[in-house]
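Record pair follows.
FIRST:
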Amino acid sequence: MSTPKRSTTTTNLRSPTKSPPPSSNGNSRRLFTESDEIHLLKSFLKLSKQSSPSSAITSPNLERIQTRLDHKFTHSQIIDKLRRLRIKYHREARTKSLIKTPHDTRLHKIARKIWGKKAQQLPKEEHAKEEKEKEKEMLKGKWWECSDEEKVKELQKRWVLLRMEEAELMSKKAELIKKQMKLIAQALGFYSSSSSS
């Protein structure tokens, strides 16, 4: 009995590697130029300073952004680009090694002002000022004109009294803080007990 001989030739099962067509490369189909990206982020930064970044994406604001860009983009293209830039910023913020070009550095600096930790924290004083402005606007509204004059005057008097009481409380608080600071200073040896008034 003879055994069948195995063929020693092998066939190449892999097809020859083809390079992708040039149109499938992301850079050749790029909608936004580098200057468009810079203009987009700068425009969005101006708008986000007036309100939070999430509420800055409104139709009128998108119109303003559109006018500042060199090319015509649709609202959905602008929103998508902002979303991609935000994702890119957060990725770069985690690992600084992804920032390779001067353009990426410029984008990162602008994006940090929009989406960075410091940009997200609204100072308490600024927030309080905004609340007072809203209160003033509400009080200046047209409803005063429709109300009874006597009731309006009574409310105004009550507001004045309330502000006076607030001022008095602030004065008492300042006095209490002063006494507390003296006690702390005495405990630390800055004042002698005989010099307290």
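SECOND:
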Amino acid sequence: MIAHLSVDSPITANAVVSRQRSDQFTFAGLGKGNRLLLSLDIQ
């Protein structure tokens, strides 16, 4: 669902992930970027 957001704006996606998911995915997204978030969403 957040894949399109992560591709366009990694920072915005991280904010969404931090609310829907957990801090684990947040720091992971900040470290790797939108590609990691996109991979998590697909799998």
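COMMENT: Helices lie at 3-8, 10-20, 23-32, 34-42.
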